[in-house]
Amino acid sequence: MRKLIKFSFFLLLIGVFFAVIGRLIASIPVGERIAIIRIKGAIVEPDRIVAKIEQAEKDQSVKALVLRVDSPGGSVGASQEIFRALEKLKKSGKPLVVSMGNVAASGGYYISAPADFIFANPGTITGSIGVIIQHTDLQELFGKIGIKTNTIKTGEFKDTLSPFKDLSERERQYLQGTVEEVYEQFLKAIMKYRSKKISEEKLRSIADGRVLTGESALKIGLVDGLGNLQDAVEKARALSSAPRARVFYLEDKKGFLKTLLEERFDGVYQYPLMVYYLLR
Q1: 6 annotated active-site
Q2: Considering the domain boundaries, does residue 66 fall inside one?
Q3: Which domain holds residue 198?
Q4: Is 106 a residue of the active site?
Q5: Distance (Å, rounded) from C-alpha 33 to C-alpha 30?
Q6: Cα dihedral 10, 21, 49, 270 sign
Q7: What is the pLDDT of residue 205?
Q8: Distance between CA 175 and CA 57 in Å, rounded?
Q9: Which sign, positive or negative, has the C-alpha torsion 99, 236, 52, 275?
Q10: Which of 158, 188, 202, 258 is flagged as catalytic?
Q11: Which helix (H) or strand (E) holds 212?
């Protein structure tokens, strides 16, 4: 029993120690910062990205956000959720700068559109403005291996994209109307923020699914300049009037020490500074 009491007391002391250390760390001023959020791969799960954008919006030390986009696109809904989160950040008064990597096409361009300034590399693949729905018909294949499907449904269009049937003419018209509606939403989102750079007539003339290089996109007005991530950071500093703002990546949760060193002390080389703050 005595050993158990001692052990419990030991655990209590450890808890108090880390609580005190946590309060000390939280009280350390972080100064002005530029946040970078990386969006890589298909845009299909927006929750984590939206949470990071909201974090950047609420953090008073963050003076601007740089969105590093390297994505071929993704689902419409996911792109629109990220788009709305970025709009909210802009309403807070924080500048938004986009740095396009290898690819920022389709949904990758959709989420870039609200930016105050868009950088692309000369060879970045962007554009691909359009909407697509595909239907695969596997009836002949399944017939050869003896698979037959019976469908019981509540409405004419419930199984429209089923791979076990042909598309009827009414279904084709229905799907075409759907993609055209979403397409108009896409164009409207772009024109909301790019109307001073590109006319609607010009946008429609190239918004046919074609991809463009960053250099071509600049000539048309889809991007604002040619440059890399560092150029985007410098632009964010200029737009936010914070020339000495430190840069940090808003990533998923890391280990306690790594997060502390990267976000509070700007790298492991400032470890002595951390010790000074904790012990003074």
Answers
A1: no
A2: yes
A3: 29-249
A4: yes
A5: 8
A6: negative
A7: 97
A8: 37
A9: positive
A10: 158
A11: strand 211-213
pLDDT of residue 253: 59
pLDDT at position 270: 42
Q: Tell me the pLDDT tens digit for each residue of 67-79.
A: 999 999 999 999 9
Residue 149 pLDDT level (bands cut at 50, 70, 90): confident
Lowest mean pLDDT segment, chosen from 26-40, 183-197, 237-251 = 26-40
> Does the residue 211 lie in any domain?
yes
In a domain, 120, yes or no: yes
Residue for token pair 């990546």: 249
Catalytic residue, candidates 71, 99, 106, 112: 106
Per-residue tokens: 23:
């309060």
**In sequence order, which ranges of the chain are alpha helices (DSSP H)?**
2-26, 47-58, 76-91, 107-110, 139-144, 169-194, 200-206, 214-220, 229-239, 256-259, 271-279
CATH number at residue 215: 3.90.226.10
CA–CA distance, 91 with 89 (Å, rounded to integer): 5
Looking at the structure of the chain, the number of domains it has is: 1
pTM: 0.79
